[in-house]
Amino acid sequence: MVGLLAVSLGVSACGSSSKSSTTVTIGGWGSPIDEATQKSYLTPFGAETKTGSRFVDAPGTQLARVEAQNQAKKIEWDALDSVGGGTAYALAGKHELATLSASQKAELERELGAVNVTSFGFAHGNVGNVIVCNMAKMKSCPANMAQFYNTKLYPQSRMFAGIEPIEAVTTAEVAAGMPISQTATTPVNIKRTINTLEGLKPKIKVFWQSGEQQVQAMHSGQVDMGIMWSNRAYELESQGVKIKVVWLGGAYEPSFWTVLAGAPHEATAFKLLSWIASHPKNQAQWAKEIHISVPNPQALKYLPASFSEQLADNPVNFKQMAVPNFPWYAQHGTELDTAYENFLRG
Amino acid sequence: MSAEGLRGVFADPPDPGPRTHTCAGAGGRAWAPVLGNGWALVLVAPLLIVLAGLVLYPLARLTVDSLTTGAGLDNYAAVFESSAGRRSLITTFVAAALVSVVAVSLGGLLAWYLRTARGSAVKVLLWLAVLVPFWMGTVVKNYSIVLLLSAEGPLNKVVQALGLGSVSLLYTSAAVAIGMVYTMVPYAALTLYGVFLSVDETLLDAARGMGASRSYAARTVVLPLALPGIVAATALVFAISLGFYVTPVLLGGAQTPFLASFISDYIFTFFDYPVASAASVILLVGAIAVLGGALLLVGRERLARAVA
Question: Chain B window 251-270: which residues touch A at a Cβ cutoff of 8 Å?
Answer without folding.
Answer: 253-257, 261-262, 265, 267-270
